[in-house]
Backbone:
């Protein structure tokens, strides 16, 4: 027998759904609540205090679900509380960022580790006689055409001021010859601008052989010592009244034709100051020829400087008799101003830091202390911008196969903290010489207080060495690179180390001698393979004389034909 059901008012005969359970705790069966509480108490009593506390908190959260709305606020509050109780002055080692390899000066540690193995290594072959494999049988020879006919009437006089040190002035001279020849102008012997850093008041004829310079260029460019008096009277015999062109760096030769030439024709005498780097590297072949002629043929050091330089070359060869008269020359830039300008940090501690701050302020007042200026010595070292120390040069050369019997000529100014920094280099190469060691004080006296004259002596000794090592950029090594190519059949015979790689090797005290030596020999081989390079766009003929100033040996005779 079925129970009666109430039909819905809609007339459908489907059964009604069961009633929803009552959710209010007040309407629950009292015995059921007591039973649950008893079971909860029994379960909690068998747990540890931590478990009971966690169970109670969880139960409250489940019973009051609205509390989850405050969870983000609770989380943030907890983090702020934690941050307030932790000191960030001392960061745990586990989360400290790793420094970049090569960012710290640790070369003394490496030297101490490798020294015994390095001295015990007897596997070194005769590096001096085997270093230049690509230089043998070189097929490039100097071939600069010279005019033999007369010159047309001059369009006027050009006077330039050559600024900078020895080789920056050399750039100005060669560019001035090229511009004067291109504009068919007469060049007045360039004036050397006195600079507060180099502090050398030398005149042109005290650095270069002026008579030889004029004679070599006589069929290509007119060169005079002074401007005619009648022309100077137009300007009240005052150079400051002469129109001065302020020309942008690396200006194309067309600028001189379109802008300078009309004014030259009008005034008949113009000034260009300053003049360093005021002509583009890429110019027509005829203008490039004049540059080659000036740099490689016309510019010869004055007789006193040339004699002193050749005397030191002879003495270096005498001291290198065990290597057939061959020696290495090293251009080392570790003077105080160079170290200060690089903003690199070495191992001199507080004294070094104070010395560098004082040197930067003395030489470049305010440049390095401007608001927002940040010095990054580690980044500079990783990027290969730090000057190599004497110790690092010694390690590199020993790794390249040169032993203690190698004669070295060191071209440098006054080394910073020289007694400490030079000691390890002299231990590795006891036959090392400088111009001060090769010549007596009396012999050097006429040049001693003139930086450009002393640099000219270094230049001559480096020019005639079997190996030239450059350790830092600058005009000195760039000019030597090209001049040595011009002398040695197109091969520079120059070691140009990769300082970025060196920084990593020197910052690795775990490296072994065999591994280190392998890397150095590879670097030496790379310099050999790059010895002969042709000039590319935007390269300088002062570093890359091929093919503008040199030609293939089998074509030399054809290229030496003179232009009527």
Residues:
């Amino acid at each position: 027998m079925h129970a009666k059901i109430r039909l819905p008012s809609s007339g459908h005969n489907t059964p009604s759904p069961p009633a929803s359970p009552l959710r209010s705790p007040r309407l629950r069966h009292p015995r059921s609540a007591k039973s649950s509480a008893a079971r909860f108490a029994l379960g909690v009593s068998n747990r540890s205090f931590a478990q009971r506390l966690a169970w109670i908190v969880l139960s409250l959260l489940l019973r009051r679900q609205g509390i989850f709305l405050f969870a983000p606020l609770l989380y943030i509050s907890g983090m702020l509380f934690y941050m307030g109780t932790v000191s960030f002055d001392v960061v745990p080692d586990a989360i400290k960022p790793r420094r970049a390899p090569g960012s710290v000066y640790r070369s003394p540690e490496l030297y101490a580790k490798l020294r015994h193995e390095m001295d015990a290594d007897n596997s070194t072959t005769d590096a001096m006689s085997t270093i230049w494999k690509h230089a043998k049988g070189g097929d490039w020879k100097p071939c600069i055409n010279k005019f033999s006919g007369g010159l047309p009437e001059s369009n006027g006089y050009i006077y330039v001021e050559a600024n900078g040190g020895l080789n920056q002035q050399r750039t100005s001279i060669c560019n001035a010859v090229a511009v004067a020849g291109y504009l068919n102008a007469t060049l007045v012997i360039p004036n050397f601008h006195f600079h507060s850093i180099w502090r050398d008041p030398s005149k042109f004829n005290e650095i270069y052989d002026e008579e030889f310079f004029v004679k070599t260029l006589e069929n290509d460019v007119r060169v005079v010592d002074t401007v005619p008096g009648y022309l100077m009277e137009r300007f009240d015999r005052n150079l400051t009244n002469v129109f001065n062109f302020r020309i942008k760096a690396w200006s194309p030769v067309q600028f001189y034709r379109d802008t300078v030439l009309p004014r030259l024709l009008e005034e008949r005498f113009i000034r260009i100051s300053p003049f360093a780097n005021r002509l583009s590297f890429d110019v027509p072949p005829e203008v490039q020829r004049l540059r080659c002629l000036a740099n490689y043929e016309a510019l010869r050091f004055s007789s006193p400087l040339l004699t002193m330089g050749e005397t030191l070359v002879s003495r270096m060869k005498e001291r290198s008799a065990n290597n057939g008269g061959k020696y290495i020359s090293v251009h080392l830039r570790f003077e105080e101003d160079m170290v200060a300008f690089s903003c690199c940090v070495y191992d001199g501690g507080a004294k070094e830091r104070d010395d560098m701050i004082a040197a930067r302020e003395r030489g470049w007042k305010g440049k390095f202390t401007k608001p927002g200026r940040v010095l990054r010595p580690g980044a500079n070292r990783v990027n290969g911008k730090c000057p190599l120390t004497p110790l690092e040069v010694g390690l590199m050369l020993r790794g390249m196969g040169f032993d203690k019997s190698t004669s070295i000529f060191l071209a440098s100014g006054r080394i910073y903290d020289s007694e400490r920094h030079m000691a390890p280099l002299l231990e590795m190469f006891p036959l090392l010489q400088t111009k001060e060691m090769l010549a007596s004080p009396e012999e050097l006296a006429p040049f001693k207080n003139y930086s450009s004259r002393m640099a000219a002596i270094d230049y001559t000794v480096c020019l005639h060495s079997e190996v030239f090592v450059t350790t830092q950029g600058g005009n000195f090594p760039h000019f030597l690179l090209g001049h040595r190519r011009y002398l040695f059949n197109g091969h520079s015979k120059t070691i140009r180390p990769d300082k970025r790689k060196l920084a990593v090797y020197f910052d690795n005290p775990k490296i072994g001698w065999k591994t280190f030596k392998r890397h150095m020999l590879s670097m030496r081989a790379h310099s050999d393979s790059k010895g002969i390079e042709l000039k590319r766009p935007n390269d300088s003929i002062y570093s890359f004389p091929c093919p503008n100033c040199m030609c293939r040996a089998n074509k030399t005779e054809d290229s030496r034909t003179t232009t009527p």
Residues 1-34, 85-90, 556-564 have pLDDT under 50 and may be disordered. The two ends are 140 Å apart (CA to CA). Residues 166-182 form the longest helix (17 residues). The CA atoms of residues 26 and 216 lie 119 Å apart.
